[in-house]
């Protein structure tokens, strides 16, 4: 694609003691591309995102961001390389205000345009502006998910990863979250999305991977995967 390759995983293995959570995964994501990973609990999806975020250390294999190996890079520098993760459960600090949570997203930055970017967050997410001085714990689940996404975007990522962004949210709120993700992708940001809700993720993704027991068992366009006889739609919660 025009923007070139952003992420490249080669033979990635992640072990926790005797447990091999990820057992040899290859994946390439181009700039501006959206990739969905679906699969049952315990498949290794969260571990994969953690490794790309620099949190989980690979036991074998390689991770490159824009051609640069991730091995040995400090966590804060992974963010500076343009990688942001919205983890499952969102990691919102409930006793801090909305504004304080947003400011945490800007800590890796050294540029002067942070205030302008925060103003833009409040333009894009008016509810966060209205509640900027309230404890984030008082926000609804959907508002907290918006806050987590807005906070991640304040690090100006080239790759935004989201772990179960629709979990626990009402369908109309999930619509809103996915509208936002579509806008973000439209700005040229790559997305890597882990979802139980395959139908939602597939509607957005350019490519999808089904992960099971630490490996990708199917990869292709969402349409190819949905057509595949091995793709058990009921299991993955397509509704
Ligand atoms: P889920 O949707 O349940 O989070 P997942 O596909 O994201 O599942 P992982 O969370 O990556 O899968 O877990 C993969 C395997 O690794 C599981 O067997 C899990 O128990 C194990 N595991 C994950 N994190 C750790 C850890 N920190 N220590 C030990 N085992 C772990």
Automatic annotation (TrEMBL):
Residues 7-238 form the ABC transporter domain. Signal peptide: none annotated. This is ABC transporter ATP-binding protein. Keywords: Amino-acid transport, ATP-binding, Nucleotide-binding, Transport. It comes from Mesorhizobium vachelliae. GO terms for molecular function: ATP binding. Belongs to the ABC transporter superfamily. It comes from the Bacteria.
